[in-house]
Design brief:
globular, mainly beta, binds copper (II) ion
Length: 731
């Protein structure tokens, strides 16, 4: 397996603007999901004091400025005490300008997530971010809350007219949801398919496709994978447009009993089957789907018959148009050892349409999901620290597939909250609470300082980690001075052979591979002078700066004694390994079965690509299991499984078991773990509380889109029949 093959060799159409999205000549489309794995990954940073006044805001690329104060992302919260957390997230699109790398100014159409007011006006992003990329609104809830999110898809597909899921007035040819995206290079001898290749190296459903379809995965929530909860099999197509306006708007929802779905949910009458939905809403969905189907060239692609098939089986249909409701309760632990509660912490949500996750996240379709509870209440009592929610993203309107290799590659710029190199202000001696979400589709972001345990950081910023992946650390694991736990994050090890052995030293955590979250308490040097600037970098790329401003604060002991940190709730004590009833081995590989000289390697799990109608793993409800995750090719694949977190108990940078490192207890909880290159990890997990089908996958999202994903199911009894009753299909 040749790691260099990871990147698709790309050539742009001769004589054409490299990043054109237009449908020109023989180049049918350029708009594509991204395939590269990880050339651009970052790692190992440091904070460096810098007293120059370089934190002033300055224009760097069209509307893109650097050095603005870090913006607080608008939140979806409870409108009143006792009410559910309630809001509308709308997917729309506009032309956005961004720095692809530190030097390349680009622009293009992007889909993005807004917070929408009840009257349809936009509460986020603010007017000041018009034309700039942005994360979605932050959802903020408390353990025990009910969450009600209306997702509206108002993408104007005509703005993506090179896309197969664009409706082409006067010609239905383009509207083909069962087709892979294509990139064609035009050259003197004719045209060549760069993607998906000829013969195709990617095929449905494991190719880039369907990028205007939306849904949301509530990453880190412990809720059901079914129906209106954390259901990533939902495929929400955009609203029809009449006279340039979406017809599925706020009034349409009210007129068609959509709010009744939430009302039913609140009174414990959530739908289980299609007929449980209000009749008006069902009739409207059917009408719109049938109308949509008339525009499709191929009978086999029609959506309503697929829904009918599911409905006939009492299974939840997959296809919806215009709007979809999410409704779930964040569970309070019931005290039973056979159950778990929702871990309070830093979680997130993002688009999860198979075939488009990489592209949709590169467009910004992700946001933080803060779930508060006893954990952060305790931290707030300790420090009363200002909270900073930081969403790391890398933006791209189109993908590298059409980018000439060598001309535009380079580490993609990491943004924070949609801002380029923003500034965080701190007073000398102030302690802040930083919640970091790595929402990048590819890159590891590791902006760690190298503070020492003596309490004096060379950088003047002292950091202590309090949670990993939205699950608090046991107080015994709080450490002063976070070190990067996994220098061999995706891609890094390719260019730095010295960093090929991850996690061979304490503290074993602190990683921010794609999908990971980290909470930090950060204290500025009490002796810092006003104007001091700390530059936070990752692999030489500046991510943000901290500027010391005037003002005095009481300087609190940092960190507080372990005994004062929040205690672990009972459901987060270590899993009892003696209860393991099943072991599994999953092998992640970039290379796989179709090694060929020029196309990119296949992305596989156990030598197979994702199957859209078959659960590869069946876990009995309540079972405790031990899994081994191998990485036999490619970068450090960040493994993620929905619904239940897991505890990493062993790690190895090789396959040689004599070199296995057994991790000390108490173990860290994760929901994404970067499997070391060439090595493996072992975890314990319990599949509790919820039955149903869901997925596990690599969180380098182009790997996921291209097949590095499995459907799995928690069931009352295993094995399952060969074909699931859910009839999941991703076409
Ligand atoms: Cu991967």
């Amino acid at each position: 397996m040749n790691q260099e093959n990871e990147q698709i060799p790309t050539v742009h159409a001769a004589g054409k603007p490299e990043r054109s999205e237009q449908n020109e000549g023989g180049t049918r489309r350029h708009f594509l999901g991204k395939s590269l794995a990880a050339g651009a990954a970052l790692a190992l940073g440091a904070t460096m004091p810098n007293t120059e006044a370089d934190a002033q805001s300055a224009v760097v690329c069209g509307p893109v400025k650097k050095g603005e104060n870090l913006i607080k992302i608008a939140e979806i919260t409870k409108p009143a005490a006792g009410s559910p957390v309630k809001g509308t997230i709308k997917v729309i699109n506009e032309n956005k300008t961004y720095l692809l790398t530190g030097t390349q100014c680009q622009s293009g159409q992007m889909r993005f997530l807004t917070k929408s007011n009840p009257d349809g006006s936009q509460a986020w992003p603010p007017p000041s971010m018009k034309g700039l990329p942005s994360p979605g609104p932050t959802i903020r809830a408390h353990v025990g809350d009910r969450v009600e999110i209306t997702l509206m898809n108002q993408v104007n597909v005509d703005a993506f007219n090179a896309s197969y899921d664009a409706q082409n007035p006067g010609g239905a040819e383009k509207l083909d949801l069962s087709a892979c995206d294509q990139v064609t290079q035009v050259n003197p001898s004719g045209s060549t398919s760069i993607y998906p290749g000829n013969p195709a190296f990617d095929e449905m459903p494991n190719c880039f496709h369907g990028s205007s379809t939306a849904n949301l995965h509530y990453h880190g929530t412990h809720v059901s994978p079914n129906v209106l909860e954390d259901n990533v099999f939902v495929q929400l197509r955009p609203s029809p447009f009449v006279n340039g306006k979406p017809t599925v708007n706020e009034k349409f929802l009210v007129d068609n009993d959509f709010p009744k779905i939430f009302g039913d949910c609140q009174t414990g009458h959530s739908p289980h089957i299609w007929n449980d939905l209000p009749k008006k809403w069902r009739d409207q969905q059917q009408q719109m789907l049938v109308a949509y189907d008339t525009t499709l060239p191929d009978q086999a692609d029609k959506l309503w018959p697929k829904n009918e098939y599911s409905i006939h089986d009492n299974a939840w249909p997959q296809y919806f148009i215009g709007a979809y409701p999410s409704c779930f309760r964040l569970p309070v632990w019931n005290g039973q050892p056979t159950s778990m509660g929702q871990s309070p912490g830093t979680h997130w949500y993002h688009a999860h349409k198979h075939g488009s996750t990489a592209l949709n996240l590169a467009n910004g379709m992700a946001g933080a999901f803060i779930i508060s509870g006893p954990y952060d209440d305790a931290i707030r009592k300790l420090y009363n620290a200002t909270e900073q929610v930081m969403v790391f993203q890398q933006f791209d309107a189109v993908t590298n597939l059409e980018r000439a290799r060598g001309t535009t590659k380079g580490p993609e710029q990491i943004y924070v909250n949609g801002q380029y190199q923003p500034v965080i202000e701190m007073k000398a001696g102030e302690t802040q609470f930083w919640r970091m979400v790595n929402a990048c589709h590819t890159s590891t972001v590791a902006p760690w300082s190298v503070a020492t345990s003596s309490g004096t950081s060379p950088s003047g910023l002292r950091w202590v980690q309090t949670a990993q992946d939205g699950v608090q650390l046991d107080p015994r694991n709080y450490q002063l001075g976070v070190k990067i736990a996994q220098p061999g994050g995706p891609g890094t090890a390719w260019t730095n052979p010295a960093l090929t052995t991850p996690m061979t030293a304490p503290p074993w955590f602190g990683n921010l591979a794609p999908g990971n979250r980290v909470d930090l308490l950060v204290q500025a040097d009490p002796k810092a002078t006003v104007g001091t600037v700390y530059t936070v970098t990752a692999a030489g790329q500046q991510i943000l700066t901290v500027k010391v401003v005037a003002g005095t604060v009481p300087v609190l002991t940092f960190p507080a004694p372990q005994s004062q940190f929040p205690a672990m709730p009972g459901f987060l004590t270590d899993i009892d390994a003696s209860k393991v009833s099943q072991e599994r081995t999953l092998t992640f590989n970039s290379g796989g079965f179709n090694n060929r000289p020029s196309p990119p390697p296949a992305q596989t799990i156990n030598d197979k690509k994702f199957e859209d109608h078959f659960a590869e793993q069946c876990m009995v409800l309540g079972a405790t299991e031990r899994w081994r995750l191998n990485n036999t090719g490619g970068p450090a694949h960040p493994f993620h499984i929905h619904i239940n977190p897991f505890q990493i108990v062993a790690i190895n940078a090789t396959q040689d078991e004599t070199q296995e490192i057994k991790l000390p207890q108490p173990w860290i909880w994760w929901d994404v773990i970067a499997i070391p290159r060439g090595g493996y990890v072992k975890f314990l997990s319990r599949f509790v509380d919820f039955t149903g089908a869901y997925v596990l996958h690599c969180h380098i999202l182009a790997h996921e889109d291209r097949g590095m994903m499995q459907m799995v199911e928690t069931a009352y009894a295993c094995p399952l029949p060969t074909h699931l009753p859910t009839k999941i299909s991703h076409h």
